[in-house]
Amino acid sequence: MPGKGKWVDANMKDIFIVEDDALIAMLLEDMLADLGYRVCASAPDLERALAAARDTEFDAAILDVSLAGQSSLPVAKLLDERGKPYVYATGYGAAPAGSSPSTLPVLQKPFQLSELEQAMKRLTEA
């Protein structure tokens, strides 16, 4: 498989997914496994995402920008407070207004395995 484990850093392997579309979440989990990561938590809505972001141990996260019409920005702010790196995944073209820092990787949906691989690499370099 392309890139199998190529970018996995020993200090960043447990990933938290915030995605409201179950099929996309499953595809993302498979893609991450192909790259050598493991999904330790997943949340389909803002309420569960905030709880998991607060109470779960993970190394990095992938956030859908819009969760059934609600912004994932509160989750991003919580991750910033915890010092957890994350990537936005969106079909809207950009991270939500108010995101910090502005240099975060943004995956444009639909994305390919190689694009996910590059975004995860940027997180390990941050």
From TrEMBL:
<feature type="domain" description="Response regulatory">
    <location>
        <begin position="14"/>
        <end position="124"/>
    </location>
</feature>
<dbReference type="GO" id="GO:0000160">
    <property type="term" value="P:phosphorelay signal transduction system"/>
</dbReference>
<keyword id="KW-0238">DNA-binding</keyword>
<dbReference type="GO" id="GO:0003677">
    <property type="term" value="F:DNA binding"/>
</dbReference>
<dbReference type="Pfam" id="PF00072">
    <property type="entry name" value="Response_reg"/>
</dbReference>
<keyword id="KW-0597">Phosphoprotein</keyword>
<dbReference type="InterPro" id="IPR039420">
    <property type="entry name" value="WalR-like"/>
</dbReference>
<dbReference type="InterPro" id="IPR001789">
    <property type="entry name" value="Sig_transdc_resp-reg_receiver"/>
</dbReference>
<protein>
    <submittedName>
        <fullName>Response regulator receiver protein</fullName>
    </submittedName>
</protein>
<dbReference type="InterPro" id="IPR011006">
    <property type="entry name" value="CheY-like_superfamily"/>
</dbReference>
<keyword id="KW-0902">Two-component regulatory system</keyword>
<feature type="modified residue" description="4-aspartylphosphate">
    <location>
        <position position="64"/>
    </location>
</feature>
